[in-house]
Structures are given as C-alpha cells and as structure tokens.
Amino acid sequence: MKVFNIGIIGFGGFGKFLFNAWNQLDNVQVTSIADINAAAITGIENVAFFIDWKDMILSENIDLIAIVTEPSTHQVIANACMRAGKHVLIEKPLAINTSDARAIIKQEIRQE
C-alpha cells in the first residue's frame, strides 16, 4: 500500500486536528508543517518545519498539501501548490469571493 506524504500549511486548531487524525492512519504520513508561528510546533518529531510555506511546497517528499490558513490566503497558496505539482485540500470556505474560487478551480483544470 502506498504511503501518501502530507504537508500542512497552517498549524492552528484545525491543522493540529488534521495532524492527529492523519497520524492514526496507516497509509498517510505528515512529513512537513508550515506556520509563521514557530511556537505552534512543539513536541513534534520526524516532521520538517517551515516558517514560510513557499519553501515547503518545493519539497519533492510531499504528495498532498492541506491548506488550513485564513480564507483570504487560500487562492494564492492553493494555486502555488498546484503549480508546484501538489494535490491540495482546502479548509472551507474555498475562498472569500467568487473570483478567487474561480481562480483556484481554473488552476486545477490546467493541471490535468
């Protein structure tokens, strides 16, 4: 069974929830976390930590990135992740307006 390597951008409450949930599964492994607050990452071993999400998405060791940041940042981060060849999961809402949502959807269509 393939193990999927996951990166999490944003390590607030929901980012921590996802980390704990995924760590209970056999076929996924959180390998990287990005958060501007370095203090958010305490007591976590065997995970690469990044202050800047732009550095994290360059990692070839990540299959999927979960975006759990403020909704106003979703479009920029999601499109950059998809351009880097990553699959994305985005915490709701997808975007804060329809033009940002369309930009995310159009970027996904271009990747196929």
Which consecutive residue ranges, at least 5 long each, have pLDDT under 50? none
Tell me roughly what share of residues is in helical segments: 25-40%
If classified by CATH, what would the architecture be? 3-Layer(aba) Sandwich
N-C termini distance? 24 Å
Counting DSSP H or I runs of 4 or more residues, the number of helices is: 4
In one word, what is the shape? globular
Task: Give me the secondary-structure topology.
Elements: E1 4-9, H1 13-22, E2 28-34, E3 48-50, H2 53-56, E4 64-67, H3 74-83, E5 87-90, H4 98-111
Parallel strand pairs: 1-2, 1-4, 2-3, 4-5
Give an overview of the whole structure.
By secondary structure, the chain is an alpha/beta fold. It has a single domain, classed as NAD(P)-binding Rossmann-like Domain (Rossmann fold). Helix content is 34%, strand content 21%. It contains 4 helices and 5 strands, in the order E-H-E-E-H-E-H-E-H. A 5-stranded parallel beta sheet has the order 3-2-1-4-5, with helices on both faces. Helix 3 runs parallel beside helix 4. The longest helix has 14 residues. The model has no long low-confidence stretch (mean pLDDT 92).
Question: What structural keywords apply?
Answer:
112 residues; alpha/beta; Rossmann fold; 5-stranded parallel β-sheet; 4 helices; 5 strands; globular
In a nutshell, what does this entry contain?
The protein is an alpha/beta fold and 112 residues long. The protein has helices spanning 13-22, 53-56, 74-83, 98-111, and strands at residues 4-9, 28-34, 48-50, 64-67, 87-90. The chain has a single domain (1-55, 67-72, 94-112), classed as Rossmann fold (3-Layer(aba) Sandwich).
